[in-house]
């Protein structure tokens, strides 16, 4: 028996008359996540000539029509965007670099840095924790994070032994409760850290959101997807 291999598929073509469909032969599906990515994408889409027809904040729909009959938006969890695009549930998507780095899988083409949802991935500790001494070669620290892949690589590069604790949210709590010495998390203004008496001790990398494209869809729907990538490109804030 052979195990079916999961490969990248292009999203099914929409069929006119189907509730989820569009004009036969060229429906383009764009995966976005609610919150800052959607909020910051709407002006980009508008500049690219695409307006979402419903108010995503009040509508409970997960599939949104746009002013372009051949383009629809699907709303998915931020960390699910690469998965949707990889397997062809969507042709394109917008995902944070943080999410893309933790996503393992191929079939994704990442043509553009959209320069939206900008923040940085940083190490933070309690103010009374001596991070500089703790990271000296040979020491061992406990780090709680949602980003175990990036954190593992970062501390390996520094030659620091690390025990990683995977969390899914409220990372700030970990150093306060003694669960961990440090956290690796996203920081923008730093106000959440400050409110929890944590200090940012090291920046790992700058983060922004990227346009991701299903490679099979790019080949099969070139005529529609290439111009869309170009439209996104000219809409990027400078
Ligand atoms: P969920 O909130 O559903 O658990 P999430 O935290 O991944 O998922 P968002 O908070 O909407 O979803 O974040 C989406 C993306 O926005 C992140 O992957 C990251 O790239 C970026 N981001 C996260 N936090 C910030 C921030 N404080 N400032 C700017 N951009 C951010
Ligand atoms: Mg969040």
Walk me through what this model shows.
By secondary structure, the protein is an alpha/beta fold. It has two domains: 28-117 and 208-235, D-Maltodextrin-Binding Protein, domain 2 (3-Layer(aba) Sandwich), CATH 3.40.190.10; 119-207, Periplasmic binding protein-like II (D-Maltodextrin-Binding Protein, domain 2, 3-Layer(aba) Sandwich). The protein has nine helices and eleven strands. It has helices at 36-47, 81-86, 97-102, 131-134, 148-158, 173-177, 191-195, 215-220, 222-235, and strands at residues 28-32, 63-65, 71-75, 92-96, 108-113, 119-126, 140-145, 161-166, 182-187, 198-207, 209-214. The strands form two sheets. The protein has a six-stranded mixed beta sheet. Strands 8-7-9-6-10 form a five-stranded mixed beta sheet. Helix 5 links the parallel strand 7 (140-145) and strand 8 (161-166). The longest helix is centred in the last third of the chain and has 14 residues, at 222-235. The radius of gyration is 20 Å and the shape is elongated. The N and C termini lie far apart (54 Å). Mean pLDDT is 90; it is low at 14-24.
């Amino acid at each position: 028996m052979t195990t079916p291999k999961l490969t990248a598929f292009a999203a099914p073509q929409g069929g006119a008359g189907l509730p989820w469909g569009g004009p036969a032969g060229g429906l383009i599906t764009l995966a976005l996540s609610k919150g800052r990515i959607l909020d910051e994408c709407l002006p980009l889409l508008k500049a690219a000539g695409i307006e979402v027809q419903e108010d995503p904040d009040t509508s409970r729909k997960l599939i949104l029509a746009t002013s372009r009959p051949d383009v629809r938006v699907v709303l998915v969890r931020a960390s699910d965007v690469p998965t949707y695009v990889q397997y062809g549930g969507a042709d394109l998507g917008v995902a944070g670099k943080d999410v893309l780095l933790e996503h393992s899988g191929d079939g994704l083409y990442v043509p553009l840095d959209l320069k939206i949802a900008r923040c940085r991935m940083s190490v933070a500790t309690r103010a009374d924790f001596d991070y500089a001494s703790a990271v000296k070669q040979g020491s061992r620290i406990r780090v709680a994070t949602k980003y175990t892949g990036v954190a593992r690589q970062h501390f390996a590069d520094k030659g620091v032994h690390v025990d990683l604790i995977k969390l899914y949210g409220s990372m700030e709590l970990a150093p306060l409760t003694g669960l961990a010495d440090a956290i690796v998390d996203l920081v923008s203004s730093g106000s959440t850290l400050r409110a929890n008496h944590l200090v940012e001790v090291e920046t790992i990398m700058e983060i922004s959101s990227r346009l991701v494209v299903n490679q099979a869809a790019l080949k099969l729907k070139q005529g529609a997807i290439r111009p869309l990538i170009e439209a996104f490109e000219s809409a990027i804030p400078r």
